[in-house]
Each structure stands twice: as C-alpha cells, then as structure tokens.
Amino acid sequence: MAIDQLVYAYVADEEAYSDKTVVIEEGSKGEWIYIVLEGQLKVKKRTPNGTVINIFTLKEGDIFGEKLLLEPGKGVRSASIIAEGPVRLGVLDTSQILRDYEMISPQLKGLIKSLILRLEETTEKICSMATKAR
Amino acid sequence: MAANQGKIPPIIRLNYKKGDLIIKQGDYGVSIYKIVKGKVGIFNEGGDREIPLATLGRGEIIGEMTFLNRGTEPRSASVRALEDSELEVWHPSTLIKEYEQMPPIIKYIVNQVIKRLVWMNQLVGKFSAKKEQVIDKGEKKEPGASRRIYYRKNLDQECVYRPVDSSPKVRLGGRIKDISLQGVGLEVGSKNAISFSHKIGDRFYISMVLPSGKKLDFKTKIASVRSDRAPGMLFLGMQLTDISGEHNKTLGFFLRS
Known about the structure:
The complex is a heterodimer.
Chain A (H helix, E strand, L loop, with lengths): L4 H4 L2 E7 L4 E3 L9 E13 L5 E7 L4 E2 L15 E13 L1 H9 L3 H28 L1
Antiparallel strand pairs in A: 1-6, 2-6, 3-4, 3-5, 3-6
Chain B lengths: L10 E6 L4 E3 L8 E6 L2 E7 L2 E8 L4 E2 L1 H5 L9 E4 L3 E6 L2 H8 L3 H32 L17 E11 L8 E8 L3 E7 L2 H4 L7 E7 L5 E12 L6 E10 L2 H12 L1
Antiparallel strand pairs in B: 1-8, 2-7, 3-6, 3-8, 4-5, 4-7, 9-10, 9-12, 10-11, 11-14, 12-13, 13-14
C-alpha cells in the first residue's frame, strides 16, 4: 500500500529504527504524530497487574500518536510502540495538523474527541480484562 | 458561515424505556445520538449472546463512529437503554457537509482511529466470550418485549430502481446484497451515477423479487456510498423509508425464515 500523497505532504522528517527499538515508551511525554512508512511495529500496554500485553500491530500507512488531538501540549503516551524488524517512520507536522484540526466546527471536533476517547476507554478495558483472565 | 457556526443540526428528542433497542448492529444509518437523560449500554451481538462493550450516560455521544465512517459500514454495535432514557437525535445533514470539507489529514487520522476501535471492540468480544461461558449458565435472560428476532440477511438478488423524482419509465439495474427491516445494501454500476445523482440523502424506489419468489417494492434513502468494494461499482447503504404493510410483512417473514 502506497502512502497517500495527501498524508505524505505532512511528513516533516523521517526516522529509521532497527528491530526491537522502543520508539515510544508508555507514560513518557511526546508531541509527535507518526506515520509508518515501512515495516511493522507492535503496540504494547501495561496491565494493572504489571504484565505487558500486545494490543495492536501497526503497518505501513498506519498513524500513531493521534491522542494528541485531545489535549495538545499535555500528551502522555498511553502505550509503548516497539519496532518489529527495521522500520522507517514519518514524523508528521504536528502544528500544521493542529491548525487544520482547529478549523473544524465544534460539533465535528466533539465527535472526533468522543471517538478517540472511546478508543482509549476500550483499550483500558481490554487491559483490565486481560488482567482478570490470568 | 459564521452565523451557522456552532449551531447544532436538526434535533429530535426521543424517549426510550428500559430495555428498548436504540441502535441495531448491522443496520445502516448515520444519525448521531446524545444522551440527555438515563443510561445506555453498547454491546456486540455474537449469535444470540450480547457482549457488553461500554455503558454511557448523560452528555455522552453514540453513533459517531458510523457517522465518521460516513455510514459506509453498517452499525458496528447495538445500543440498548439500560434505564428509561431520553436521547437527542441529530440527523447530521449539516455535519456531513462539514465533514466533506474537513482537511484530508484529519479524515485520515479519523479513519485510523475507527479501524483500531473496530479491532479493539472485537478483542473485547473475544475476552467476554471466554468469561461468559462460565457466567451464562446461572443467568437467565429476560425475554424483553423489545427483543428483536429480525436480522440482516445477505443475499444477491437483481432489482430495478429509480430516483423518486424521475419518470416511471426510468429503470436502473442493481443487485441487492443484504436486507433488513431497516434497509438494504445495493450494488450498482458506477455509470448509473452519471445520469442520476447517487448522493447521500437521495431517494429511490426499489423493486425486487425475494429468493422466495415474492415481489417487494419500497422507498429508500441513501445513507452511505462506497466505491472501494468492487471496481466500477458503487455500494449503497440504503435506509428503508416507506413500505406497504403487506410488503413489510413479506419482508419480515423472509427475514425470520
């Protein structure tokens, strides 16, 4: 799958990582939104009892760090992102994305917020279910 | 533009009794609901079991996923009132225009979030299925009056259709891919959209014959359009807006059979 040209236009910088590199650490602060240009990464999350579970695999064209839209400037990473094999990432121009986001009407923004929150909640729910299942 | 900014699109308020089904998984629809009063439960339907995904209360929004997905997929989960509830329904005609004008990067991000959310919901389903095997035996389900026994059925039947404001001589061809009491999935050649508008909200008469040989006529409204299912084809998610009592019975009978 080729990366959409419209999205590619937002790539401000490219970064390459080798296998098993922790690109983002859960709980750390970060203000970037990334797109996967090449390769795969695992999304891992700590459960309440301290174990770590895989929750998602990011592939070419996938974006991560979008939670930033909820409260720019206060971004705490809610999961760890770890390279699975060599990867190439695009760092998106976050300030441009935020400017674009600001242009949207309050209702639409409300819907997007609700959606991102729902994803957060569901992810948390999975973590707690995974804990109980053990 | 400035005058409209911040105004909420047409709103209706609806009341639901405890146990009522508000949204049915598998149906087409783009309405958005905001909870004014009460509590609702979101759940996935797996066979005859309901897998709870979330409980929402006052001020929270439901249906945003299907809307932001532009209604291209049927509702991914069902919603039921957990207590007597009042909901605001926005038919998002204004929001649709705004969505179209949204910067592509934001659309892209939204689609990503939806994709992941669908995945997560499935994971919740898998976890619950394991757990429920244990719980299920002790617990009897209430045979609530609102419990529906109709489902969406997949099929592949030819149909003829035409815009409601066109001459009765117009006959466009398509294939009905799925059907429920709420609507149909209709696949048509993209060329049909050259001579007649096939946009969200456009109304059409549809005439088809069910596999049982019964004829069915009804009126529909496009709730979603997608073009990525098969090359040269459009897939229309259509809401059923008008059907005669007799034909409704035929359809109900077919769906139950």
